[in-house]
């Protein structure tokens, strides 16, 4: 067995002669263990075969015992039959012979089967013995080869020991020279440190002077910025934006002279021939009422959007670290689609909210106010209610929504003024038809007069500066005004 283990270990050892003694010992142990495991497996297989053969022999013995039991049983039965059939022996002799023949045939068949099984087991046993003999022969050959290789590696081991001694001696010489170099290097480093410390102290002094100069310049720059911030910055705007205050101011003026007059013409066309009071007061007042209602609805939509953006912003603040980390990771590895598009998304969202404001809501509120005014003092300044008019003015309502949305989305938002009770020359101007008698007197004397109705609201900045004067009609207090009679009450003309 030891020869077999040595042979197997030599067969698996590497042919590389440049191995250390420790590796050789490790290879010896591992391969010896492998050979022992293989031999143990072969023994287990041989034991299993012997067990199977023993089981087969036990089966043969069991069959023989069963045969003997059956023979004894048959004999007992024959004797019992003979005792019982003494009187009828002649009649049953033929049957007895028949039974004996049948039992003899069965016993012969069983003997034949047992013989075949025994022969087959013997043949298998001989084959297994031959195979194990061949395997053991091969293992012995491999073991001899491994032993030969071990002898060669032992010779190589001695050679490596000599080389190791030489390398150790060389290493000691190199170590001594290295220690000398380290001491020399330490002395040079100490000298450099002294020189660097002296230079650093000079630079610290220069840095202190520069910091004092920077502090003085920072104070002067802060004072300059404070003066600049105190100046009027309301007219400063970003010319790259598409919705600048100057654009809104121009569009508001164009809207007053364009879409508003077109709406008045359409009202006149829908309601039929008009009198002077309807053309100058009723139709402009209805157009102004629609514009005021659109402004109020847009302000509510803007406040709702601000609340929405506040919630979105709070969520973004919570998610910002994770989103920034993912974006940085994507940019670092140059992943496609990694870009910060949040500002463009908000601009796009705020620019489309005005399209979501329903014209039906504006039309419904205008209709309610229009009908309610018929029972109030302002009834004389609006035409007769007509739902068809509001239906036909759908484009005008949409235009009012778009313009007022651009106004309220400014930072800070622009405002409409249409709630004053008294005339203010800095906010209002008289209606054109009522201003004819005021050319010679000026508008200063109108300050404080009661406003009858607004024909168009005033446009203001957030700071209160008037961008566009509102057009109003004042209540007449003297005969200098051009009086517009109310044709619904003819008795007042007399």
From TrEMBL:
Keyword match Membrane: yes
Cellular component GO terms held in the UniProt record: mitochondrial matrix; mitochondrial outer membrane
InterPro entries membership: MIEAP, MIEAP_C
Domain of life: Eukaryota
Domain Mitochondria-eating protein C-terminal: 246-473
Location of this chain's protein in the cell: Cytoplasm; Mitochondrion matrix; Mitochondrion outer membrane
Keywords of this entry: Coiled coil, Cytoplasm, Lipid-binding, Membrane, Mitochondrion, Mitochondrion outer membrane
Main subcellular location: cytoplasm
Coiled-coil positions: 32-102, 136-163
Record keyword Transcription regulation present: no
GO biological process, one term: mitophagy by internal vacuole formation
Short name of one Pfam family: MIEAP
GO molecular function, one term: lipid binding
UniProt cross-references to PANTHER family, sorted A to Z: MITOCHONDRIA-EATING PROTEIN-RELATED (PTHR21771)
Family: Belongs to the MIEAP family.
Protein name stated in the entry: Mitochondria-eating protein
Organism: Pocillopora damicornis
């Amino acid at each position: 067995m030891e020869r077999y283990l040595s042979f197997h270990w030599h067969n698996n050892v590497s042919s590389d002669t440049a191995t250390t003694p420790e590796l050789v010992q490790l290879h010896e142990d591992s391969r010896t263990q492998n050979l022992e495991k293989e031999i143990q497996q072969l023994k287990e297989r041989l034991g299993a075969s012997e067990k199977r053969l023993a089981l087969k022999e036990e089966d043969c013995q069991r069959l023989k015992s069963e045969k003997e039991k059956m023979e004894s049983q048959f004999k007992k039965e024959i004797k019992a039959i003979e005792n019982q059939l003494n009187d009828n022996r002649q009649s049953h002799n033929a049957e007895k012979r028949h039974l004996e023949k049948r039992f003899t045939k069965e016993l012969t068949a069983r003997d034949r089967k047992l013989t075949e099984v025994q022969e087959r087991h013997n043949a298998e046993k001989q084959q297994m013995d031959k195979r194990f003999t061949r395997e053991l022969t091969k293992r012995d050959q491999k073991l001899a080869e491994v032993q030969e290789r071990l002898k060669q590696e032992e010779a190589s081991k001695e050679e490596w020991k000599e080389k190791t001694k030489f390398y150790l001696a060389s290493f000691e010489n190199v170590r001594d020279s290295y220690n000398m170099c380290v001491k020399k290097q330490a002395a040079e480093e100490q000298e450099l440190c002294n020189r660097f410390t002296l230079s650093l102290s000079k630079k610290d002094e220069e840095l202190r002077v520069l910091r004092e100069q920077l502090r003085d310049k920072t104070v002067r720059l802060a004072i300059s910025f404070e003066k600049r911030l105190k100046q009027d910055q309301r007219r400063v705007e970003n010319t790259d934006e598409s919705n600048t205050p100057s654009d809104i101011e121009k569009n508001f003026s164009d809207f007053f002279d364009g879409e508003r007059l077109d709406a008045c013409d359409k009202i006149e066309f829908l309601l039929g021939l008009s009198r002077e009071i309807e053309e100058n007061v009723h139709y402009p007042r209805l157009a102004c009422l629609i514009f005021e209602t659109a402004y109020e609805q847009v302000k509510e939509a803007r406040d709702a959007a601000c609340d929405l953006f506040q919630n979105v912003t709070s969520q973004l603040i919570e998610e910002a670290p994770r989103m920034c980390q993912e974006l940085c990771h994507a940019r670092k590895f140059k992943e496609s689609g990694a870009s910060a598009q949040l500002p463009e998304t908000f601009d796009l969202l705020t620019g489309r909210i005005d399209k979501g404001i329903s014209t039906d809501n504006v039309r419904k509120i205008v209709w309610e106010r229009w009908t309610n005014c018929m029972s109030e003092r302002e009834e004389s300044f609006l035409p007769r209610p007509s739902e068809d008019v509001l239906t036909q003015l759908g484009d005008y309502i949409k235009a009012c929504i778009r313009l007022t949305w651009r106004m309220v989305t400014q930072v800070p938002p622009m405002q409409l003024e249409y709630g004053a009770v008294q005339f203010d020359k800095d906010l209002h101007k008289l209606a054109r038809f009522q201003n004819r008698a005021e050319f010679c007197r000026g508008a200063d004397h109108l300050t404080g007069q009661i406003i009858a109705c607004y024909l168009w609201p005033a446009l203001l900045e957030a700071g209160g500066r008037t961008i566009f004067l509102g057009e109003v009609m004042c209540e007449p207090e003297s005969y200098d005004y051009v009086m517009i009679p109310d044709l619904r009450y003819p008795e007042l003309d007399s």
